[in-house]
Each structure stands twice: as structure tokens, then as C-alpha cells.
Amino acid sequence: MASLVEPVAAAPLAAPAAAPGPRLRRLPPALLGLLLPASLALVWEIAAAQAWIAPRLLPPPSMVAATLTELWETGELARHVAATLGRVAIGFALGVVVASVLAALTGTIDLLRRLLDPTIQALRAIPSIAWVPLFVLWFGIFETPKVLLIALGAFFPVYLGLESGIRSVDRKLVEVGRIYHLGGPGILLRILLPGALPSWLTGIRGGLGLAWMFVIAAELMGASEGLGYLLLDGQMSGNAAIILGALFLFALMGKLTDAVLVAATRRATAWQDSFRSGA
Amino acid sequence: MLEITGLAKRYDSGTLALAGVDLAISPGRIVAVIGPSGCGKSTFLRLLAGLERPSAGSIRLDGEELAGPSPKIGVVFQEPRLMPWLDVLHNVAFGLPRRLSRHERRALAAQAIERVGLKGFEKALPKQLSGGMAQRCALARALVTRPEVMLLDEPFSALDALLRARLQAELVRIWTEDRPTLLLVTHDLDEAVLLADEIVVLAGNPGTVRTVVENPLPRPREPQRPAFQMLRARLLSALPAYNLAAA
User: Fold this and answer.
1) Confidence tier at B241 by pLDDT (50, 70, 90)
2) Could you tell me where the DSSP H helices lie in chain A?
3) Residue A178 to chain B, least CA–CA distance (Å)
4) Which structural domain, as residue segments, surrounds residue B97?
5) Does residue B123 sit in the same domain as residue B186?
């Protein structure tokens, strides 16, 4: 009975929903994601042209683009972007490496975990920006404190991701390793790290996000180049277009580096049997 | 020859799981260990596998005292326990020593995969395997090192009846090829009578050997035959009374 009734009941429901849905859904996902920012920019542009908002405070996208183009042509923009990207790359790499080594140690050696983990968890409670005065005092105002601050920002998510990942690896798989006489390093390399990989990568992704957050904090504490410098410059000269341009570049580079990271690691977690892992 | 003398295990919690088990198993035999749940079957197997340390007694293989996991002993657990990130080929090759070349490991794994009937699935990930295929893969992983003794902890208990019967038959076929000693822990009396040459009945609390029953039936064995049923009935009566309902 039910099987006879169902299609009839479902048909009128499905019909109206089919009209707008599929057309939008047929767009490539990348275009779909651009839809909202593009429409906002358009509304914004019109609002500025109609003089509903003061261009001095909120310059329209066309003006921001013009400012960025101008900076690009003088070669200044490339210099700032390269400076910021360089700091993020070095600081992020440093944070990931140190966090991963420490988490691998505390994750596998129980004594080390009991020894170090409480301290690391306590340090995590300090907002990383609060380290700025100390870092400036210790390392001056040049590159070292900036890179270290970024590394510190990236450290905690990566450490937590790998450490909790290792601890949640199935004990039964570890026993298989013991059956085949793997020692500590063998179990770490062949069972714990691969098993912890998804959680580790989530931590690394979070770490990258924080690295971008901390590069601004680092550059705002005084820099002669970089996007953070551009922000300060815009503030000092009262040029909102420069500020918005720098914000736009932060968004763009953060999103791009994240996309690169996700694409580079997608294959590594293809084995996961999780909800929508095939999507 | 696998010699077990006075084997006992008391856990840190104080529970005495196994109290003085003596057993001698000749090479190439299939031995089933049955008993009520909680009789120390699993503990017994984990001790032999080297995953637990005995509190007393010893386990000797060919006169050599075992301390910890041995390359001469392979284990198939109740669950497949495959590495989810490795395909079938690499899961099977997992237990091969690293001193072998990549090529050798690949060849040996491929051979073991063929023996368990998984040929063509070398590149499949565990998430793509059915329960029976995953357990075949686990069997291949234990076989690939050609162990003298294979321990099987209720290896087919999670499979449906049809699949179980098929894998039991295949296990016997594989066993006839190079005749390792098989030590099978099970709670399934039919499985014990079908597969084993010798059936060890454990009594629980704490675990001790109640009796050892020889199985003289020729292979292939047919559960519908009277002789099969008689042996089964004998085992049932050897089990502690409180377990009758469960069996």
C-alpha cells in the first residue's frame, strides 16, 4: 500500500522545488561561492555612485581596485605581499614542526605527557597577543619576534590536533603493531601518525588560520613592509581604500593558502569512512 | 610443539582469569578452545599471542620460552583490525619484516591474497570491503609470514551463518596446504567439532582445563551426521551446567 501511495504524494512536492534549485546547483561550486561577495560588491558600488555613503569612509570596490592597481604598478604591493607571505610561511612552518614533534612525543610516551602536557595546556590559556610585549623585549622589533609570534599562534592547534589524534587511535590497531613486534618508533610511524592524520590536518588548517591572524598582530607592532604596515599606513593617511585593499588581500591570501593546503592533503585522508567523505 | 605449563594470569585488578593451564599441542593440529563466556578463553589467547604477560607458568614453542609476541605466531582477531588507511595489499604486507625488499613483500602479499580468495581486491581500502572480505584480508595478513602457530580468536563470529560456513571450509583448505598449528578460540560448538582435531573445554572462574576431547571424525565433516551430533552432545555435557541454556 505505502509503496503505491508514496510516489503520488511526493510528486506535487517535488515539482515546485525543482524549478529554482537545480539551475543554481548546476553552477560550479567555485562560482556559487563567489555569488554572495559579487552581489554585495555590486550593491556597494551602486550605493557609492548614488552617494548614499561617504566614499571617504567607505570607498567603493572600483576605488579600492584602482588603489591596489596603483600600488601594484609601483611594485610596492608585491613587496608588501611577499613580506607578509614570507613571515607566515616561516612562522607557520616553525610552529607546525615544533608542535608536531612535541605532540608525537607526548602522545606516545606517557611519562612525557604527564610531565609536559599540563604546562602546554596552561600556556595555551594565555592569549597569544599577550606575548607581544615580552617578545619585543627579548627579540627587538625586527623579524624574529614576528616570526616567533606567528609560530606560537600556529603551535597550539597543531599540537592539540596531533596529540588528541594519537590518543584516539584504536588500541586494537596498536595491538596489531605489537603482534608484529613493532617498537615505539615503528608503532608511531606506521600506526599512530597515519591514524592521527585527519585530526592532525584539522589542527594544521586551524594553525594556518591563526598564523594569518597573528601576522597582522606582529606587523601592527611595527614593520616597514607587509600588509599590516599597509593597514597602518592607511590609518595614518586616512586612506580607507588602502585599508580595505589590505583587508581584501588578507581574505584572498588566507583563503588561497587554505585551499592549497586542503587540496594538497585531500588524498591523504581519502581512506576515511565518514559522512560525505565522497562528496 | 607448543607446550603450556602452569599458565596463570591474575590481572592488576585482582581478578584471577586463568589458574594453572597445562596443555601440549603437537604441530600441525587444529585445536579448538571452548568454554562459557568469562572462562578466560580470550586471556589464554592473549597470553599465547604475547599481548599479556603471564603471572605464572610458561609457554614454550619448540622448546623455546616465549616472552612477548613471536614471529612464529600469527594472530587473527575477532574483528579484522585492518589499518583503514592501507589498501588490501599493504594491509597484508603489514606484518612482513622490513628487511625484505619491496618487491619480495609485494610478491608474498599477493600470494597470501590469492590464498584467501581476495585476488583483484589488492587496491581496495578497508571501508570498501564487506565483513567477510575484511576478515579474509586479516587472515591473509596472518598467513603471509607463514607462522608455525596461528591463533584465531572467534574469527568468524561476526559473520552470517552462510559466510561463516564458507570461511570455515576455506580455513581447512588453507590449513591443508602447509599445515600450521591452528589454535581456535570459539563459543560455537559446531565450529569446534567441524574444524578441530582436539577440543579443549575450559571451565570458568578461574579458568582451568576441564577436559580435552579428541575428534576422530574424518574430513570433510558433515554436521548432519549422527557421529557429528554425538560428539557435539558430548561436548555440551562437558560444559558447566549453567552454560547449557546459552549453548
Assistant:
1) low
2) 2-18, 21-26, 29-49, 61-73, 76-108, 110-124, 132-139, 143-167, 171-179, 184-187, 193-220, 227-236, 240-265
3) 7
4) 83-146
5) no
- Mark yes or no for CB contact B126/A271 under 8 Å: yes
The pLDDT mean for chain B works out to 89
Tell me which chain B residue has its CA closest to the CA of residue A191: B83
**For A181, which of B71, B77, B125 is closest by C-beta distance?**
B71
Mutation site for B-interface testing, chosen from A170, A176, A200, A272 by largest number of B Cβ within 10 Å: A176
Beta strands at B16-25 and B2-10: parallel, antiparallel or unpaired? antiparallel
Residues of B with Cβ-Cβ distance to A271 under 8 angstroms: 84-86, 125-127
> Chain A closest CA to B51's CA: distance in Å?
7
For B22-34, what is the mean pLDDT?
Answer: 92
- pLDDT of A223: 78
Q: Which residues of B touch A191 (CB under 8 A)?
A: 83
Partner-chain contact A178 B50, CB within 8 Å: yes
Which of A172, A190, A273 comes nearest B81 by C-beta? Answer: A172
User: Over the stretch B130-169, which tens digit does the pLDDT of each residue have?
Assistant: 988 999 999 999 999 999 999 999 999 888 888 898 899 9
Q: Tell me, what amino acid is at A192? A: L
Residue A278's pLDDT is what? 43
- Partner residue facing A180 (CB), from B94, B125, B127: B94
Instruction: Indicate whether B53 pLDDT > 80.
Output: yes
pLDDT at A4: 39
pLDDT surpassing 70 at residue B245: no
Q: Are residues B46 and B8 in the same domain?
A: yes
Residue ending a domain, choose from B146, B162, B190: B146
Q: No. of H helices and E strands in chain B?
A: 7, 10
pLDDT of residue B150: 95
The residue of chain B nearest to residue A196, with distances taken between CA atoms, is B85
Place of cell 594470569: B9
A143-167 helix and A110-124 helix, angle to the nearest 10 degrees: 130
My answer on whether B123 and B162 are in the same domain is no
The Cα A102–Cα A96 span in angstroms is: 10
Set of chain B residues whose Cβ sits within 8 Å of the Cβ of A178? 50-51, 69
Expressed as residue numbers, the domain containing A122 is 61-267
B92 and B138 assigned to the same domain:
yes
Contact B75 A273 (CB under 8 A): no
Closest chain B residue by Cα to residue A176: B81
What pLDDT, on the 0 to 100 scale, is given for residue A208?
95
User: Do A270 and B85 form a contact (C-beta atoms < 8 A)?
Assistant: no
3-state secondary structure string across B7-25: EEEECCCCCEEEEEEEEEE
CB contact under 8 A, B81 and A175: yes
Ranges in chain A, pLDDT < 70: 1-22, 275-279
| ipTM, 2 dp | 0.88
Per DSSP, the three-state class of A129 is helix
